Amino acid sequence: MSHPEEKLAELGLKLPEVAKPVAAYVPVVRTGNLVYTSGQLPLREGALIATGKNGDGVSAEVAVECAQQCALNALAAIKSEIGDLANITRIVKVVAFVASTPDFTGQPQIANGASELLGHVFAEAGRHARSAVGVPVLPLDAPVEVELIVEVA
């Protein structure tokens, strides 16, 4: 099996630096063989990819890209805790918060930006439980926020 970062490279992606928290929390916590990330925003090189709400100004394509970036940021935080993404034995759960207008119902498709990335990178170990939740607003007016729970060796 290819190393997870080789799989990312196949997609033209690489892990970013760990995003700095925007409030009083840490990006990642390990307890036993589980690692929990804080909610990750779609920050790329210190700036949000987009702002606003799905259903009002943020296209599905941009929102999916945001979800993918959130997952990359979460993986970077996990790597900072465990040293090597190859130590991930299972993606357990993905929670995607999608800033949406009241009539927007495409949250699952937006969350696929994170889920499909994790499936490509971790294959069978990337299959996970998931929640995709519509919310009225997210920090910094981000359109998407994603958190992960992973099992490690």
From TrEMBL:
CDD domains: YjgF_YER057c_UK114_like_1
InterPro entries assigned to the protein according to its UniProt record, in alphabetical order: Endoribo_LPSP/chorism_mut-like (IPR013813), RutC-like_sf (IPR035959)
Segments forming domain Endoribonuclease L-PSP/chorismate mutase-like: 6-151
SUPFAM superfamilies xref list: YjgF-like
Top-rank taxon: Bacteria
Pfam families per record: YjgF_endoribonc
The protein's name in its UniProt record: Enamine deaminase RidA (YjgF/YER057c/UK114 family)
Organism expressing this protein natively: Kribbella orskensis
Record lineage: Bacteria, Bacillati, Actinomycetota, Actinomycetes, Propionibacteriales
